[in-house]
Inverse folding.
């Protein structure tokens, strides 16, 4: 594989990012509706005060992966931490150390923001991701995630 360009997302990446989100949803065995996602992601990523940040992986002018993160508050820790919402690479990009490169960039971002830790989740059936996360030193907190539509 050609050396990837890992960088912050730009507005021109939004179409490809929405497509990657759809692939990510399929990988996680769920449904994704791309309706209005370009406008919504643009608002959250590129406003004067973004609520989310996105790093993309590009090879030969094609996005092959992304990671999104944001600030969250932990009542138990009484501090803000970095929450890694998504980390996804298309299948042909896995196994080349790109995920670890993304995690290292995310760690640097957390340090710049003066956070003491990063949290994220992955489905329990995503064995490869769980092995990867354990290999880089992450510890698991077993929880169920619930969604209440309102």
């Amino acid at each position: 594989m050609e050396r990837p360009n890992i960088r912050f997302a730009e507005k021109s990446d939004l179409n490809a990012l929405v497509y990657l989100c759809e692939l990510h949803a399929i990988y996680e065995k769920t449904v994704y509706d791309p309706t209005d996602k370009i406008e919504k992601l643009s608002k959250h990523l590129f406003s004067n005060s973004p609520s989310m940040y996105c790093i993309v992986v590009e090879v030969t002018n094609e996005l092959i992966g992304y990671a999104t993160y944001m600030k969250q508050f932990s009542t138990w820790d009484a501090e803000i931490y970095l929450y890694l919402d998504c980390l996804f690479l298309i299948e042909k990009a896995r196994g080349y150390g790109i995920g670890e490169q993304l995690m290292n960039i995310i760690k640097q971002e957390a340090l710049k923001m003066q956070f003491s830790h990063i949290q994220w989740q992955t489905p329990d059936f995503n064995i490869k991701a769980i092995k990867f996360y354990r290999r880089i030193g992450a510890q698991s907190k077993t929880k169920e995630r619930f969604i209440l539509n309102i």
Q: What stands out?
A: The mean pLDDT is 93.
